[in-house]
Write a structure and sequence with these properties.
With about 200 residues, the chain is an all-alpha fold. It contains eight helices and no strands. The protein is elongated, with a radius of gyration of 17 Å. About 5% of the residues have low confidence.
């Protein structure tokens, strides 16, 4: 489960919220340079890498208490996040950049310095990663490797989103969200199947 390809798939799944938000951000900007895209990507990637660490520490604190059912907890958390992503994609409720800012800090919306709004949007899109961080602790994943992979993948995905925002349209974020949800659910199911098939 802790294989590198699985971590890349996990990183992709967690990055789709950031990708959708960066699409909206890019679509709202008059011009997006490669430097702009990398800065946007780095903010989203940094926040997406930080949140699993917090969740991981929470998961470690709980690990001894829930060891007999840790695989079930990991499965339920990943299933919940994955289903939520599928619901957002199906209902068309993937948030815009401004809506993500409003989620993180109600009342700011489109007001305030752009960099603060960008950080707040990154915070709002990385909450799922905090929940997944708890699952990583239950699964015994190397958190340093996981954080690097998640951060790099999210940075690249968000930078790409910002660059193609005007051409692709925000609707593309819905499809990425759906794929990400399916991948998370699949990873959760594989974790459960591995443990059950080993008689754990």
């Amino acid at each position: 489960m802790s294989g590198f390809l699985t971590l890349i798939a996990l990183g992709f799944s967690l990055s789709v919220d950031a990708f959708a938000a960066a699409l909206a951000k890019g679509a709202s900007m008059k011009r997006v340079t490669a430097g702009d895209a990398l800065r946007i990507g780095a903010v989203f990637g940094g926040m997406e890498a930080l949140m699993p660490v917090i969740g991981f520490l929470v998961g470690l604190a709980m690990a001894s208490l829930v060891a007999p059912v840790d695989h079930w907890i990991a499965f339920v958390l990943l299933l919940g996040v994955g289903l939520h992503m599928l619901y957002e994609a199906a209902s068309g409720s993937v948030e815009t950049h401004e809506e993500n800012v409003e989620i993180a800090a109600p009342g700011i919306g489109s007001e305030g310095p752009p960099w603060i709004r960008l950080v707040l949007a990154a915070l709002a899109t990385s909450i799922d990663a905090l929940v997944v961080g708890v699952s990583l602790a239950m699964m015994g994943v190397n958190i340093i490797t996981a954080v690097i992979v998640i951060g790099v993948v999210t940075t690249l995905m968000a930078a790409l989103g910002a660059l193609i925002g005007k051409q692709a349209g925000v609707w593309l974020g819905r499809y990425a969200e759906a794929v990400g949800g399916v991948v998370l659910i699949t990873i959760g199911a594989l974790i459960l199947w591995q443990h059950l098939s080993n008689g754990i």
